[in-house]
Specification:
This protein has 134 residues and is mainly alpha-helical. 80% of the residues lie in helices and 0% in strands.
Length: 134
């Protein structure tokens, strides 16, 4: 189970490091093509979310690798659970307001992706706080 948790941690870290770095380095207009939800959100909030995602990605791996402040790893996972709850809510709300079936389907897919990431982060939090601590 420890190996599985490491695999999930690395996978989540890669996903959130990429997403966070994109939000931090790309202008909002460029993100709009892949992340339609950024339209009503101020650029500073998009950047803040990117920073949170990047820090969580580091928190999933670095404390576990170094053995320093290992409690940060499950805390980072809990933080990502909270972020993904927000992501699900944003996508569900946007799906209801879309005017075409294709746009509603894309928002629904976004909510499902957030739900899968939420479950993976919850598994890491459970495992690292519980029976498989670092």
């Amino acid at each position: 189970m420890n190996v599985l948790l490491w695999i999930i941690q690395i996978l989540l870290a890669a996903v959130f490091a990429g997403a966070g770095a994109a939000k931090l380095t790309q202008p909002k207009e460029k993100l709009r093509d892949r992340m339609g939800w950024v339209d009503p959100v101020p650029p500073s909030q998009v950047k803040a979310l990117g920073a949170v995602e990047l820090l969580a990605a580091l928190g999933l791996v670095l404390p576990a690798l170094t053995g320093i402040a290992t409690v940060l790893t499950p805390l980072a996972a809990v933080g990502l659970v909270i972020v993904m709850v927000g992501g699900i809510l944003v996508h569900v709300r946007r799906a209801k307001s879309q005017d075409t079936a294709d746009k509603r389907r894309l928002e629904t897919q976004g909510a499902v992706v957030c739900a899968v990431l939420l479950v993976l982060a919850a598994v890491v939090a459970w495992g690292r706080f519980g029976p498989y601590p670092l």
